[in-house]
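We read letters as residues; the fold follows as C-alpha cells. A sample entry reads:
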Amino acid sequence: MNDYKCDIILLSYESPDLLKRCVQSVLECTRVRSKLIIVDNASLDPEVVRYLKDVHGNETLEVEKLMSEENAGFAGGINKGLQLSLSPFVCILNNDCVVTDGWLEEMIQVSESREDIGLVNPQSNTFGSRPRKDQTIEDHAEDVRKKRGQFTEIGHAIGFACLIKREVIEKIGYLDEAYEGVCYEDTDYSVRAYRAGYTPVVAEGAYVYHTEQASRKNLPGKERIYEKNRKIFEKRWGRLLRVLVFLDDGLKDLSEYYEVFKGLARERTFISIWVREGSCAGSTVRHSDIGVKEIGKFGVSSRLIWAILTKKKKYNAVILEEGRLASFLSSIKLFHKADIFTFHYDAKIKNGKGDLFDLKDPARM
C-alpha cells in the first residue's frame, strides 16, 4: 500500500551543481512522507550520472530514479514521472530550485484548505520575493513563513515548483507534449485545470528559490521553440490580454468592480489599476495578475496618455470614467490600438458604441 502523501517529480538534465543543491535541499527540508522521483532527461554529463547513482533517501523521503534514453523535453520528462506516481499529491520540481524548511507541507495545507484549489506554487523570487543582500535563502524563507495559511490566486501556475492534486490529474490528464522544450506547457495545464473547476494559487507561507532561466539559457533554438509554443497556446486559448484601468474614486470603485476584474484576470488577462494617491489606502488585492498603482493627484491625464502610447507591450483595453480623457483616447486609437471602455451608473462597462465589456470572451476586444 502506498503511504506517501506526495510524489515529488524532479526533472534532471545536465547542470550537476544545480542538481546536487536541489536534491540536498529536498532531502533536508521535506517533512512530509513522500517519494522523490528523479527523472533524468538523457544527461550527457558523467558527473550527473555518477551523482544520481549514489543518491539515497532518508526516513521521510524515498528516492526512485528513472534514467531516460532520450531528452523528452519538460512535458515529456515530467509525464514519465507522473506515470510512476500514485500519491494524493504530486509536486513537479525543476533541478534549478532550492526548497526551504516546511515548503511542501505548507503547499499541501493550502491545497487542502479549499476544494477548488488544484494547483499551488510556493512564494519565490520568480514572483518577486527575493532575499536581501544580507540574507541567506533560509533567512528570507523564515520571514515568508510568517504568512502560513495565506494564499493569493494567480492567473496560471508556473512549473518550476508546482503542487497538483491527484483529482486534477485524474480529470485532465498529463502535460501536453505538443509543447516543445520548456515554455507554455504549464500555462496550458493551468487553463485546462481552471476549465475543470480548479483554481491556481501561490502559498504565501512556503518558499522555494528558483535560479530562473537556468533550464532555458542553453536550450538550442529557444526563440523558435518559444514562438512555436506560443502559437499552439494562442490557437487553443486565445492571446494573453493587457488592460489598464483608472479608478478616480479609488477604494470605492475597486470594491464595486473587483469581482469583475477578478473574473477577467481568470481569463488570462493582466490588469493594471491606477488610482489617485491616497484613494486606495488599506485595500487588498488577492490576485497576482491584478496590480494596483497609486499615482500623484495632479497631471493624471498626461501620465495616462503617455503610458498608453509608449507601453512596449500595448494595452488591449483601457477602462476609465466617461469624459474628455476617454473621448480623447478614443480619437487617437489609431496610435495606441486599445479599445476604450467607460464606467456607467448601472455598474456596467461599455465602449463608445454602447457594447458591454465582454468578460466571457475577452479575446473579442
